[in-house]
Specification:
By secondary structure, the chain is mainly α. Among the domains are: 129-186, no CATH class; 192-250, Serine Threonine Protein Phosphatase 5, Tetratricopeptide repeat; 254-313, Serine Threonine Protein Phosphatase 5, Tetratricopeptide repeat. It is built from 17 helices and no strands. It is globular, with a radius of gyration of 23 Å. It starts with a helix and ends with a helix.
Length: 319
């Protein structure tokens, strides 16, 4: 730190040293000083994407989430295939929502999931606890005003939160309440969501037989209600993983695999995750060609064209 500070004093125009000094300040959680150095480095002409990224990190560290979100929103448009920028955009957008009155459980689940993927488990647990707190508040309100479908969504989300906090008995209790309520309402979509959620729970605790049973039951209801993207994203993509964990690679049914992959790609495209959308859709295309599924091949080409257009790659879209 002292070495870089002295170097900047000797040559205030040394942009690389300024940038490195900013990173040192950031690593020491001195975000104001870091921000100052990154802003100067950008002004002096250092790589714009690199400085903007660290400016966004620094704004986030200072709790200036709106400014950070704007930075990552711009970077996301410039570098749509950069998963780290996508992750940070989701993170600071959720933090921005949390800073406002009326924050949602969903925003804390998003930040918790990011912390979990970064293996910052204590931070993830803290975020999930906040998510549970907001979910339980919503549940009380829905029950008070008699909003049954809202209550079921809150119960389902509560089950997920309890499972993420390893409070297994409470998780299953919430899921079972959701299932009973969905049956009483005759709401097959909610019943499918309940079955899928329980399947995820059993998968997380290594009970693959029950996970498979509940996921397949959920798939039947999604299919019956023509919710094919939900079936692809929430069931079929997970079922293959479960069967793999059970060592049943040879018994997996690949019929319609290309269509499922294409549907998952569409789901990621809807979420704005074009890197994942491209990955799944290209795999769908190769699979359709391998099994001579011409109709799905045509739709995969159509999906790829739309993704490339969203990415601003018109030349690839026309291929």
């Amino acid at each position: 730190m002292l070495k870089h500070t002295k170097m900047v004093e000797d040559d205030a125009q040394d942009v690389l040293v300024r940038f490195q000094l900013g990173k040192l300040y950031h690593d020491l959680y001195r975000y104001e000083h870091a921000l100052e150095q990154f802003l100067i480095a950008r002004e002096l002409g250092f790589d714009r994407a690199s400085t903007d990224k660290w400016i966004g990190y620094s704004y986030s560290g200072l709790g200036r989430y709106t400014e950070s979100r704007k930075i990552f929103e711009s970077l996301r448009e410039q570098l749509p295939k950069d998963d780290n920028i996508q992750k940070w955009f989701v993170y600071v957008t959720a933090r921005e929502e949390q800073a406002k009155e009326g924050a949602t459980a969903e925003s804390y689940i998003k930040t918790g999931n990011i912390k979990y993927r970064e293996e910052s488990y204590d931070s993830a647990i803290s975020e999930y606890k906040r998510a549970l707190e907001y979910t339980e508040r919503a549940l009380k309100i829905y029950r008070k005003i008699g909003a049954r479908r809202g209550e079921l969504w809150a119960l389902l989300r509560s089950g997920w939160c309890y499972a993420s906090l390893f409070r297994h008995n409470e998780a299953l209790q919430r899921y079972e309440e959701t299932g009973r309520g969905a049956k009483l309402l005759g709401d097959e979509t909610m019943e499918a969501n309940y079955l899928s959620g329980v399947g995820d729970y059993y998968k997380s605790v290594g009970d693959y037989e029950n996970a498979l049973k509940f996921k397949e039951a959920a798939g039947e209801l999604y299919r019956r209600n023509n919710l094919l993207i939900d079936e692809a994203r929430l069931v079929l993509a997970i079922v293959g993983n479960i069967k793999g964990s059970m060592g049943e690679f040879d018994t997996m049914n690949y019929k319609g695999e290309a269509e499922v992959l294409n549907d998952i790609g569409l789901a990621y495209q809807d979420d704005g995750d074009y890197s994942k959308a491209l990955e799944y859709t290209q795999t769908a295309l190769r699979t359709a060609q391998r099994y001579n599924e011409q109709w799905t091949e045509m739709w995969a080409y159509h999906s790829l064209g739309n993704i490339y257009l969203e990415l601003g790659e018109a030349d690839n879209a026309l291929k």
